[in-house]
Protein: Mab-21-like HhH/H2TH-like domain-containing protein
Amino acid sequence: MGSGVSGLATETPGGDLRLPASGLKFSHNQLRVLNSYVDNLWEEDQTGRISTELESAVESLVQRIVDGAGQRDPRFRCSHLIALHRGKKMRSRSLEYLITLDSLPPLNSGDDCRLQDGPVGYGRIRLTGKEADKWEEFLTPSGYLCRDKVVERWVELIARCTSARGGGGSRVLAARAGPRAAPYRHCYLQRGASLLSTPDRRLAIVEGAAWVMVRVGAGEAEAKLMLGARVEGCSAAAYTSRVPLTHPLALLHYTSAQGGYYAAAVGPPSTLVCGDRSSTWQLWNPSLEAELDAHCSDLSTVARIAEALNVLIDKMREGVYQGTLRVLSRYAGSSALRRRLDRCGAYAHSAARCCVAAHASHHLLLVLDSLYALCDRGGPAGYVFPVARGSLVRRGARDADWAGDAACIKACLLQMHHVAGEDIPPSPSEYLETALLSRWESLNREARVSAGSIPTYSRRQLRYLWRLASELLHCKTMVTCENHSTFRANLIQVTSLDQEPIEDLIHVLAIMLDQARDLYLNNFHSRNVGEFDRELSAYRSKKWNKLKDYYDASSACLIDAVRRDPDLRREDLKDYMVVMKNILNWLYKGAKDDKKYLGPVLKPYLEGLFASSLENSWFLEDFDANKCLKEYDGLAEYCLGVHDGSLQPCMALLDAAKKFAWAKAMVDFVDRFRHIDFRLVFPTGEGMAVSYPVKLPSRREHSSARTLTLSRRDKAEAKLRLAKRYFRLVFPTGEGMAVSYPVKLPSRREHSSARTLTLSRRDKAEAKLRLAKRCVLGAFATGLVGDRR
Structure:
């Protein structure tokens, strides 16, 4: 299939494409035609979104139900809901909310609540002490929290609270804001009395499914509720600690993984071997996935690919193509897209790494092909946690219909091959995008060539690399239980206090040696079928079985030489510039001295490290600015001041609005809806909170209130009143009487004194400047014609 496709069709964007799993071939012209098809799918996805009014009504209903369950049983209190659908590039037609058990302390924050690792992507909650007494009826004989009993009790409470009152949609947070919503460190506005009418509602509980379905009206909208417990730290099974420093988005992955994760009340599939199935919880990381989605704008090529894939999944479920998609979930599709984007980060050319608009269909076809391979042959389906495909099946589906799903995806690929029949020339925007990326690639190539065999890193590059290394170290220190290899365990030794900076340097050096080894063997953990060069990987695997021990021995010798270096002890290792320079010097020294084992592995790693730091170090300041750390610190300081009584809520809010955007937004919102009574709510933990009425002072009482709450309409009225005062001359005559005349000055031509009266200093200066220019130009023109006077 696909006439005109060359035999050199590869997965690298920019040329012909041969799908590795399905075997279909697409020429470069066909891929360009499919780009317009991707745009049509993206536009179709934009029209199927739920309205904001309906979403607000559903959130208000869900909040009332959850609050009612918490009132009946305080152990199921929830301070705020996590809206999993907000900001998603691939969002379903239903709303998704994560209900947290706030009466349970964050797992791994103390000895009473611990999360113990189970199979990959799963864990068990062990309770001791007073927490075990509180949840005694839900514990197994071995002391683990039984998931089935907790969900059964929660569903019973939810079913009783369909007509509960209270709550509201103001306590629903996006997944990105969840890690920042710690007790005593955040607040929110809530209406004093609900003004919305309660819609018709019906509660539906799906038997055997983890989600609790809430349907509003006659099928107008539905919400899926999931119960979960928050976990502090980073998971050892997550992918983030394995992302190499050379990846373009390494800093985003490292920082996004530090917000904690959740143990959701989802059991393991029947195909997974597990000891105690009733007490096993599935691990989720919604904040990390939300940060990855938010990194790309809604109009980017990545967003267009994701939403086009979203529409194709809906079409396959509706039976538009041959068969119906029954088992494959939407989350499995989004995980396949994220793995594809990670693969793009390992490409050498800038156009391939940046996922430009001209390559949209190329990436979409590869994602569909990877889903076809997943349904046909199996393999890891998750992204954050590499769980098998059985753990991500669609709600209520059986884990036995994969062959039908594979046939449906194959029919979709054949249909797309049929659509790409006519030829469409490239658009001007594609020409411009290609030219810009080509210039950028040439600029970076010249910088690398001019640097020589051992390049010199700039201060900006060193600062970027140290930031990467420090964030990765922070992630590893947040891992509660990590299975270190024997090689790694022998590196870190017990040292004195004055030698701790050296051990920190050695720790970073050991991590980089491990990453270079893994990249050389696996080409950035691309272990999925069809995602890498099989022949090259097989050759390297056979060869590596013999050379791995030699590489580890050479790495250990290099680290031992670093530890015994007397010159290193005299360096100022508290300066990150000095630390990073020494790490790079030792890596280049090892690659140069050991050309048999360390050289072939470290050389491509160091080349990628220099190229990545050269490109991405320019965006470090913008990355930090987007984190809004000052805003979060200001919010935490304000909330702590209110809790300890040193700040008055309303007056302190007005003062904070002078410096922080969050306070300014709250003041403007309250001022805009003056007819509604609001309360400031400050959560204190375990589903409890304190609240204060919002009574902003009048503009005369507080000097800053006028500046903060002056709307556009008020400003326009003030300007109009000011203009009226200056456009009439009033002459008082006594006894409260006066005569007035409109001010109508004559034009400058009509009255000789008008120019003198209205000529300002600026006008005089401009007139003098024009006169000087005329004199200079006249003298210059006279010189040109030869006048010697």
User: Anything to note?
Assistant: The chain has five domains: 1-48+297-442, 50-183+196-295, 452-625, 628-710, 752-784.
